[in-house]
């Protein structure tokens, strides 16, 4: 059992290892979003070169948008611009600006990687490991995850740090917000096995009784209790994996740049099995580094934070990144879901630097196995990003930080805008087909108004717009061709090119379905529906047939309506809209097909051809047989050592008081008192009541006392 020893300095704590009590003072003060506290470091400055980089991206975006807007105006201005045509023009300009902005960043990334650069800070991913002198905490927040796989990944990272010779510089914290009682106890058991396997006293586990503010609240509470003992923290997700070499280089970079508050790596997707996840893995590995390098090139010290696989200076985070609770009801009010963007913006506002290191390597994550799982996670992200609407006017934020907020918002707002753009185009066509035009307007006119558009010019505008979407992917492939080793790790140039073509075709079918899903998410949020906190599925992507029909029913209905409307106008219009209509009409079979395991010969990635040691070790540990799942109370009854450790983490039993948990306690106590045996008591307890029992020492002892021999 670990003890907590408070040092003479306020806010500084040292720990001796093991389980940590779940009760803790929530003393971390939230930073006022009106006026930032004074920075502890001299603010980073923006060089003239960085100004030129940003000017390049913005001017190129404006030029492409302006040219496209002019050509689109020429398409619709024949015979005058109607109200609906004007709406189409406005939507086209907004959407083209979004595409052009992404294209400009990707073009910059192509140039940067062609010159073998890419990191906003000079961090080398090769060569001898640099020495480090700081203490770093590795934080692993978790919520209802598979404990066996979770600890397998953590052990692989731990062993990788040991192999790097820097085990003494890192402490490890599993911060659990798990609400499933069986998973909670399984976590504790898996953690004890991890401690036995590692044989070290620098591993710690804590389960929170109160899930206030979710992940950000979990980390904030850790900062309050233990943050003062460390210079840096590396934040992981439940599916994160990092090599020890990379973590050491990140710490050295922070030591070498005292004005840096955060360094964000580019996590590479690994362990993909289904067609959908392998598609994401291939695309992220081939195009992702170029896009991220472009963003890092012109963001500089005003980078962003993605919530995991990043190192953070604790002083900057503790002083600046406290989050308030947004006023109003959910989904726009309450605790900030996409906290990472906000934390980065607050630290940058106080003068600290936020950097990206997309070419560092050694940083990995997993991806949802199916389109439905991806959409479920995306729904939560959508709500978190739309919450940022309330933060856009926050005083003294850097304009790049505001741009991060707007980019996150735009990534979801564009979906309903695309859908509206398509629907208006169909309505205009239907109007021209079935509504008799007024050739001669009221009043005097020498010439008639001929309602028409220029179809040839429209085709050119459409083709050039699609080119802005496709060219970055081709640039990523061209970069691959310039590097022999990388080309070989992708299975060769021909196989990689085949993967690019297949990815383009499958993504084109998936995109309309995601457009509908994201549009539904935006509408639900605007109507006040909260996303909640759901566990992410990480196994295979197989989906039941009933679920397929239920979830893909709306996209399919949209496809039928679009196809019927387009065909009512003309068969050529149906062919023109077929890229969108096909994806929607066949949403159900596409969803089922992409959720199935995929032959590994197509979307090959370097991590499959030459997997890094930490990935091999993590998969080896995860593939070992896991303990059979069992009810939490039954496990504690059978394992006295685990029971002792569990009891040592609990606060004193509570009596009375408001709150949901107290009602569960009262009901659980009544059920236990009315039961004649342990099995009867366990059988009648609901999961919520079992969770309450596990958090109350007296009640836990009472239910275990009904078991013979205890």
Give the arrangement of secondary structure elements.
Elements: E1 4-6, E2 13-15, E3 18-20, H1 48-76, H2 83-114, E4 136-142, H3 147-163, E5 170-176, H4 181-198, E6 203-207, H5 214-226, E7 232-235, E8 241-242, H6 244-256, E9 260-265, E10 268-269, H7 275-299, E11 310-313, H8 314-320, H9 339-349, E12 353-357, E13 363-365, H10 371-387, H11 399-434, H12 455-481, H13 484-489, H14 493-526, H15 545-569, H16 571-576, H17 578-585, H18 587-594, H19 606-609, H20 613-622, H21 632-638, H22 640-649, H23 660-674, H24 678-684, H25 687-694, H26 697-704
Parallel strand pairs: 3-6, 4-5, 4-7, 5-6, 9-12, 10-13
Antiparallel strand pairs: 1-2, 7-11, 8-13, 9-11
Helix pairs in contact: 1-2, 1-12, 2-7, 2-11, 2-12, 3-4, 3-6, 3-20, 4-21, 7-12, 9-11, 10-14, 11-14, 11-15, 12-14, 14-15, 14-17, 15-17, 15-18, 23-24, 23-25
Strand content: 5-15%
Radius of gyration: 28 Å
Largest sheet, in brief, is: 8 strands, mixed
Category by helix and strand content: alpha/beta
Helix proportion: 55-70%
Distance between the termini: 22 Å
Observed structural traits:
710 residues, alpha/beta, eight-stranded mixed β-sheet, three-stranded mixed β-sheet, 13 strands, 8% strand, globular
Describe the structure.
By secondary structure, the protein is α/β, with parallel strands linked by helices. 56% of the residues lie in helices and 8% in strands. It contains 26 helices and 13 strands. The chain has helices at residues 48-76, 83-114, 147-163, 181-198, 214-226, 244-256, 275-299, 314-320, 339-349, 371-387, 399-434, 455-481, 484-489, 493-526, 545-569, 571-576, 578-585, 587-594, 606-609, 613-622, 632-638, 640-649, 660-674, 678-684, 687-694, 697-704; strands at residues 4-6, 13-15, 18-20, 136-142, 170-176, 203-207, 232-235, 241-242, 260-265, 268-269, 310-313, 353-357, 363-365. The strands form 3 sheets. It has an 8-stranded mixed sheet with strand order 3-6-5-4-7-11-9-12, sandwiched between helices. A 3-stranded mixed sheet has the order 8-13-10. It has a two-stranded antiparallel ribbon with strand order 1-2. Helix 1 (48-76) packs antiparallel against helix 12 (455-481), helix 4 (181-198) crosses helix 21 and helix 7 packs across helix 12 (455-481). The longest helix has 36 residues, at 399-434. The chain is globular, with a radius of gyration of 28 Å. 45% of the residues are buried. The model is unreliable at 1-16, 23-32 and 656-660 (pLDDT under 50).
């Amino acid at each position: 059992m670990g003890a907590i020893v408070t040092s003479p300095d306020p806010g500084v704590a040292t720990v001796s290892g093991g389980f940590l009590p779940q009760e803790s003072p929530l003393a971390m003060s939230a930073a006022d979003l009106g006026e930032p506290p004074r920075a502890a470091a001299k603010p980073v400055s923006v060089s003239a070169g960085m100004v030129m980089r940003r000017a390049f991206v913005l001017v190129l975006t404006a030029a492409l948008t302006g040219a496209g807007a002019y050509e689109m105006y020429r398409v619709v201005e024949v015979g005058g611009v109607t109200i609906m045509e004007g709406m189409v023009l406005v939507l086209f300009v907004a959407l083209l600006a979004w595409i052009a902005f992404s294209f400009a960043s990707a073009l910059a990334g192509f140039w940067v990687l062609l010159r073998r650069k890419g990191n906003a800070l000079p961090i080398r991913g090769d060569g001898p490991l640099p020495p480090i002198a700081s203490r770093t905490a590795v934080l692993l927040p978790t919520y209802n995850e598979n404990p066996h796989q979770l600890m397998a990944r953590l052990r692989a990272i731990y062993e990788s740090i040991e192999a790097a010779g820097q085990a003494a510089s890192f402490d490890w914290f599993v911060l659990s917000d798990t609400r499933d009682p069986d998973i909670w106890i399984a976590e504790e058991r898996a953690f004890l096995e991890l401690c036995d396997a590692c044989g070290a006293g620098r591993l710690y586990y804590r389960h929170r009784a109160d899930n206030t503010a979710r992940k950000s609240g979990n980390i904030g509470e850790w900062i309050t209790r233990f943050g003062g003992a460390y210079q840096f923290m590396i934040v992981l997700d439940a599916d994160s994996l990092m090599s020890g070499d990379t973590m050491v280089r990140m710490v050295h970079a922070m030591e070498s740049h005292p004005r840096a508050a955060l360094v964000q790596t580019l996590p590479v997707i690994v362990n993909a099995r289904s067609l959908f996840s392998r598609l994401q893995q291939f695309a992220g590995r081939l195009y992702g580094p170029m896009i991220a390098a472009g963003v890092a090139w012109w963001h500089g010290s005003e980078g962003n934070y993605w919530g995991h696989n990043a190192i953070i200076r604790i002083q900057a985070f503790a002083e600046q990144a406290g989050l308030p609770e947004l006023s109003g009801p959910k989904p726009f009010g309450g605790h900030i879901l996409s906290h990472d963007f906000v934390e980065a913006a607050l630290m940058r506002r106080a003068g600290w630097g936020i950097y990206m290191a997309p070419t560092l390597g050694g940083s990995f994550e997993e991806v949802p196995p199916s389109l439905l799982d991806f959409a479920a996670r995306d729904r939560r992200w959508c709500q978190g990003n739309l919450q940022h609407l309330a933060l856009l006017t926050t005083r003294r934020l850097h304009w790049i930080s505001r741009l991060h907020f707007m980019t996150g918002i735009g990534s979801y707002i564009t979906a309903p805008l695309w859908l509206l753009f398509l629907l208006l185009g169909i309505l205009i066509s239907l109007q021209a087909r079935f509504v008799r035009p007024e050739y001669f307007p009221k009043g005097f006119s020498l010439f008639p108004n001929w309602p028409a558009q220029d179809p040839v010019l429209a085709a050119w505008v459409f083709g050039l717009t699609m080119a802005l979407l496709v060219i970055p992917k081709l640039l990523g492939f061209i970069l691959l061709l310039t590097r022999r080793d990388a080309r070989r790790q992708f299975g060769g140039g021909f196989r990689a090119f085949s993967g690019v073509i297949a990815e383009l075709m499958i993504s084109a079918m998936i995109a309309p379905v995601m457009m509908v899903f994201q549009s539904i998410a935006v509408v639900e949020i605007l109507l006040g529906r909260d996303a909640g906190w759901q566990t992410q599925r990480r196994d295979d992507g197989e989906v039941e047939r009933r679920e397929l029909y239920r979830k893909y029913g709306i996209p399919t209905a949209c496809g039928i309506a679009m196809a019927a409307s387009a065909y009512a106008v003309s068969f050529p219009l149906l062919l023109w809209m077929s890229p969108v209509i096909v994806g929607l009409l066949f949403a159900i079979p596409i969803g089922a097909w992409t959720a199935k395991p995929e032959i590994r010969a197509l979307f090959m990635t370097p991590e499959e051809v030459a997997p890094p040691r930490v990935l091999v070790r993590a998969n080896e540990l995860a593939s070992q047989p896991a303990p059979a799942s069992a009810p939490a109370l039954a496990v504690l009854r059978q394992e006295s050592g685990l029971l002792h450790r569990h009891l040592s983490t609990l606060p004193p039993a509570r009596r009375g008081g408001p709150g949901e948990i107290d009602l569960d306690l009262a009901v659980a106590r009544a059920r236990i008192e009315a039961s004649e045996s342990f099995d009867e008591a366990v059988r009648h307890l609901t999961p919520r009541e079992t969770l309450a029992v596990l958090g109350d020492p007296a009640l836990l002892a009472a239910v275990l006392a009904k078991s013979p021999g205890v």
